[in-house]
Amino acid sequence: MRALKLYGKQDLRFEEAPEPVIERGSDVIVKVKAVGVCGSDISRYAKLGPYVSGTIFGHEFSGEVAEVGGEVKHVKVGDRVAGCPAICCGQCESCQKGEPARCESLHVIGAFHPGAYAEYVKLPAENVIPIPDSVDFDTAALVEPSAVVVHGFYKTNIQPGATVAVVGSGNIGLLAVQWAKIFGARKVFAIDVEGERLKVARDVGADEWINPQEKAAHEQIMELTDGRGVDLAVESAGSPLTSAQVFALPRKGGEVLFLGIPYADVSIERFYFERIVRNELTVLGSWNAVSAPFPGREWSTSIHYMSRGHIRVNPLVSHRLPLQEGPHTFDDIVNGKGSYRKVLFYPEAK
């Protein structure tokens, strides 16, 4: 089969790979229909996060069941599915407590196990989730990032009528805008320095869009909320700068939810740090997309709202490409060539 393999820093190759085979009764082999590029893929490609040289890359995908082991009951050949890429040990203290997102050895396919930038991928049966006909394969390929976002929202105290600021209008931020509305937010503020991204944020439901290059984001938020601040601020940009500035956005007693991962040290000016203490903020970190019973309600809930059109992914997708264009696409993204948002690859010609 054809696949994208990561061999080293910015060394991604499109080449042949052996097709996966059933080895355990719980194995499921999925024919990949659509697979997305995640921000973590870009980081691993550019900076070499955890990986094994030559491993098939990628983890956000949907497809059709091609083969199942003898113990698999909930899906059959031909079923349309999404794939949860998280692999947990099941044995550590966190797993035993029903907290798989905190697993001591949690990783996703595409690092130590063959991933989904390929014609076929193999997963344990519990990682394979059926999707209804009302959810197309492109949408289902984004169930995983949607589950990442709602995993974080479940940690918050957001109530209907709340105000929410989402920092960063990348793919995670655009999904966060939509989840904020689903959770009952009365007003959602999208914050980004790129006008085109803010336009997409507006398209998916943001009520106000703020460019901090015009005036500091917290000053604009305070003007728009009569000096109160928002109930919940979501950091989804993963920027060291915004990871500090986000603390100035919530009201007294408000919350900050971190979904983004800054790949550099975060220096916090006194003004921003004091907001944590003086405003008695609750600061929440969120990691991955799984809970108990595995893979968790994040997955079924994402599929539910996607099937009803409340989570829309088409506005997020900027490029739909054949898999063989992977190497130069990753090179373009890392080197700032072109205007990329969410990229979907197709192992089959469309």
UniProtKB/TrEMBL annotation:
InterPro entries assigned to the protein according to its UniProt record, in alphabetical order: ADH-like_C (IPR013149), ADH-like_N (IPR013154), ADH_Zn_CS (IPR002328), ER (IPR020843), GroES-like_sf (IPR011032), NAD(P)-bd_dom_sf (IPR036291), Zn_alcohol_dh (IPR050129)
Coiled coil: none
Listed GO MF terms: oxidoreductase activity; zinc ion binding
Keyword Metal-binding: yes
Names of the cofactor(s): Zn(2+)
Domain Enoyl reductase (ER) residue range list: 8-311
Cited Pfam families: ADH_N, ADH_zinc_N
Keywords on record: Metal-binding, Oxidoreductase, Zinc
Similarity remark: Belongs to the zinc-containing alcohol dehydrogenase family.
Name under which the protein is recorded: Galactitol-1-phosphate 5-dehydrogenase
